[in-house]
Write a structure and sequence with these properties.
Blueprint (H helix, E strand, L loop, with lengths): L8 H7 L11 H7 L5 H5 L3 H5 L15 H12 L23 H18 L23 H13 L6 H27 L6 H5 L3 H12 L4 H12 L6 H16 L11 H11 L7 H19 L11 H12 L7 H21 L16 H35 L5 H6 L13 H19 L9 H14 L7 H15 L9 H14 L4 H15 L18 H12 L6 H13 L7 H17 L7 H18 L7 H13 L5 H17 L6 H14 L2 H18 L4 H9 L8 H12 L34
Helix pairs in contact: 5-10, 6-7, 7-8, 7-11, 8-10, 8-11, 11-12, 11-13, 12-13, 13-15, 14-15, 15-16, 15-17, 16-17, 17-19, 17-20, 19-20, 20-21, 20-22, 21-22, 22-23, 22-24, 23-24, 24-25, 24-26, 25-26, 26-27, 26-28, 27-28, 27-29, 28-29, 28-30, 29-30, 30-31, 30-32
Length: 779
């Protein structure tokens, strides 16, 4: 009999380590962890359970399973007429409370459990679920818990506590079942499920055993919890999914009478969990993708039961896991290997004509999602190669310019460093992705039902072009535009009309090209989207399927203007005003952030000629953004405050307007925002004050600032050095330096020397805390 509990058994025998736990243990230790089910077995998670995922043993060939009691249970629960539910137990209807939020379903369950407790004259508590073998108004069974678990599984994407709630109710159902089993064993003085129980079974004990069986959780309970974690955004979702899959695998590796074992859906739910790409650890993403593939290969192995054979969706989960590895060149080859494996399985099923072939093979058919992820894999590799190629070419061009062998114009258009024969710029990989899209189109043309050339496939390719675009590849935006026009032309015959993602990809490609006409081309596509959606004369509704721009569209156009050699901050501001005046799109936090950064960049380039005015405009937008945050719509990032301070410090202006803006930004961050000021904020404000103020005003400002800085615990090495150095635009005499230092930090102790109180720098890293050496050049 094929083992249902030994995925990748050969790997286990070789390494004796768990796929999910990833902890190496002696084989004997792993095997000793596998034990019969008990109450503690379900309520706690041991290291043995985690290691059980790989260290599976085949279930025994013969189980003492009471088929008679199962038949009685079936009649009691479902009726002998095949009806799936009855009026006494409406929860047997799969649609029972299906549209209700999980907290209402949970409230119903608690109310039902309390009613049964009252009916049997006991007090309900979570640790003592009601159990009675005598007649009651309510005939409870495990389905009451399943309805709650399903409700939380459906709501897990929007309900942050859903997985924890699901775990609670699964453990509650296990306690309920254990209580019923204990009561049965106490009443009939025989172990539940034993040979003795079955040999001495009476009609009464068989009916009682059916009640106990009816309270037994099945694999769908565990699946519901895994599904909850699979839909959760929490970092612990994958380890918790692994824990519950381990529970099932640990159960099926022991000689227990419950016969709980993972099914195909259990593994698919877990694959869904590991393939979501949660977090930013690229190494961990690759480990999870490789783990997903090992699970897939186990399900294909002869050691696995045919009931857990993979489907198209199983393969797609593994493909998705690999496409989450955005920094790995090797995934393209791995993804293509899996796709070819799917095609080979499909071919075997077709060639055998449905004879002498496993039925499961008919369920493995590459679909649109499969081929689209294959395209994405090639695009990932293309992007990695393109970034490396660009860095190498720019470094080479800089060396040539230093030697006078390259003109600036040649460097800008990349004419001297790019070659059509260069295979390292990602072009070849992008051609592979394009050929897959053409293959999808061909499969659709011959009637392949599961494969369609949809807008998603085209968008994937357009996103690839946007990823390859840079200042050395002026041809990429033109290619992207051509593909976009092809989508529009082909949309009459297929469902490929471009959406907002399509237009955004083309706009992004132009923005990254950084050519003289890049921003103008971005504006062209933006205005095309706007104008095509304006009502036509004589029409009351939109007459074109052209997508309307969203906030991302405007933000990309802003980027294009900011990336120009002469950034146009005024135009970026105008785009924000257009969004605010629009009825269809509203600016987001990123929109305001780009406007603020555009004005700060303008200040350093001094394009308007009025020093400090651009910083004032940046602050006005940040102030507006803070006001909107109070309404709950958008909000600033902490670095925006620091950027204004830094720009004001670096500006050539010395007017009091700079200091006023800097102080407003500083105190707004400290007192009005949800962020705290840090040591660098004090440094920049100090630099601005010393630059703008003179005489007694400067001394008063510095004294007040050092007092506040020491009170907040942010006196740093750099702060002390800047205070001692003085304004950058004037040279302090030695006597003046000594006087300012004594004024700010006090006089030096002749016996022990100068030292800073530790409380002054309590919030500063040890390496950045000041010492007497920072005053050495003064004394």
């Amino acid at each position: 009999m094929a083992s249902s509990c030994s995925r990748l058994g050969t790997i286990v025998r070789r390494s004796s380590c768990s796929i999910i736990g990833r902890r190496r243990l002696p084989t004997s230790s792993l095997l000793s962890q596998c034990r019969c089910i008990s109450s503690s077995h379900h309520l706690t998670v041991s290291s043995g359970r985690q290691s059980a995922i790989l260290n599976r043993r085949p279930p025994p060939h013969h189980h003492h399973y009471d088929y008679a009691s199962t038949q009685i249970r079936s009649i009691l629960l479902f009726g002998d007429n095949g009806q799936q539910f009855d009026k006494q137990r409406p929860w047997h209807n799969p649609n029972f409370m299906k549209d209700d939020p999980p907290d209402q379903v949970e409230a119903w369950l608690i109310s039902l459990l309390k009613s049964v407790s009252i009916d049997i004259h006991t007090e309900y508590s979570p640790n003592n679920p009601p159990v009675s073998f005598d007649g009651t108004k309510f005939m409870l069974d495990s389905r009451i818990y399943l309805r709650v678990l399903e409700a939380y599984a459906r709501a897990a994407k929007h309900y942050s506590g859903a997985p924890q709630k699901a775990e609670y109710w699964v453990n509650h159902s296990i306690r309920h079942y254990e209580n019923a089993r204990s009561l049965f064993e106490s009443k009939y003085r025989t172990k539940f499920g034993s040979e003795l129980m079955q040999s001495n079974q009476t009609q009464q004990s068989a009916a009682t055993a059916a009640i106990v069986h009816g309270l037994q959780p099945d694999v769908e309970f565990y699946n519901a919890v895994i599904e909850c974690w699979a839909n959760s955004k929490e970092q612990i979702s994958i380890p918790r999914s692994a824990t519950w899959l381990s529970k099932l695998e640990a159960d099926c590796s022991t000689n227990n009478p419950l016969l709980l074992q993972p099914n195909a859906r259990s593994y698919d739910l877990y694959l869904n969990s590991v393939s979501r790409g949660i977090g930013k650890n690229s190494k961990l993403h690759l480990e999870r993708a490789e783990e997903a593939e090992r699970i897939l290969q186990y399900r294909l192995s002869s050691d696995a039961p045919t009931s857990i054979r993979p489907t198209t969706e199983s393969y797609n989960y593994v493909l998705r896991a690999y496409t989450r590895c955005r920094k790995e060149r090797s995934i393209a080859g791995k993804v293509m290997t899996l796709v070819r494996e799917m095609e080979q399985i499909q071919k075997e099923a077709v060639m055998n004509g449905g004879h002498d072939v496993d039925d499961w093979k008919m369920n493995v058919v590459p679909n649109t999602k499969t081929y689209t992820m294959a395209m994405d894999a090639w695009i990932i590799k293309a992007g990695i190669k393109s970034a490396a190629w660009r860095s190498e070419k720019i470094a080479r061009n800089n060396k040539l310019k230093q030697k006078g062998l390259l003109q600036q114009s040649e460097s800008d258009d990349g004419s001297s460093s790019t070659s059509k024969d260069d295979d390292d710029d990602g072009t070849k990989e992008l051609e592979f992705a394009k050929s897959i899209l053409q293959y999808i189109t061909a499969l659709e043309a011959v009637g392949q039902a599961d494969v369609r050339a949809s807008v998603v496939g085209y968008n994937t390719l357009l996103t690839g072009y946007a990823r390859l675009a840079n200042e050395l590849r002026p041809d990429i935006p033109l290619i992207a535009e051509q593909l976009l026009n092809e989508m529009i032309d082909a949309s009459e015959d297929r469902n490929t009309y471009p959406d907002v993602t399509s237009f955004n990809a083309v706009i992004k490609a132009w923005g990254k090209a950084k050519k003289l006409n890049s921003a103008a081309r971005c504006e062209y596509w933006l205005h095309k989207m706007i104008n095509e959606n304006r009502p036509r004369e004589g029409y009351t509704q939109q007459t074109t399927p052209i997508a309307q721009p969203d906030a991302s569209t405007y933000n990309l156009v802003m980027d294009a203007w900011m990336n120009m050699d002469n950034p146009d901050a005024a135009r970026v501001q105008d785009l924000l005003l257009e969004m605010k005046a629009s009825d269809t799109v509203s600016p987001n936090s990123e929109s305001y952030s780009k406007v603020i950064r555009a004005w700060l960049k303008d200040e350093l380039l001094n394009q308007l000629g009025v020093k400090g005015s651009s910083v004032e405009r940046a602050w006005a937008n940040l102030d507006e953004l803070m006001s909107l945050e109070a309404q709950g719509d958008v909000g600033p990032a902490p670095e925006l405050f620091t950027s204004i301070l830094k720009t004001a410090a670096r500006s050539e202006g010395r007017g009091e307007n700079l200091l006023a803006v800097a102080q407003e930004s500083f105190w707004a961050k400290r007192n009005r925002s949800r962020f705290n000021v840090d040591q660098i904020d004090f440094v920049f404000l100090l630099e601005i004050g010393m630059k703008v103020l003179v005489g007694k005003e400067r001394e008063t400002f510095m004294v007040d600032l050092i007092r506040q800085c020491s009170k907040d615990g942010f006196v740093s090495k750099r702060f002390v050095r800047e205070a001692v150095r003085g304004p950058v635009h004037e040279e302090w005499p030695e006597e003046e330096r000594e006087r300012i230092v004594q004024l700010l930090f006090g006089e030096e102790d002749e016996a022990v020397g100068f030292s800073f109180p530790s409380s002054w720098s309590r919030n500063v890293h040890k390496h950045d805390q000041p010492s007497a050496k920072d005053l050495m050049h003064v004394y």
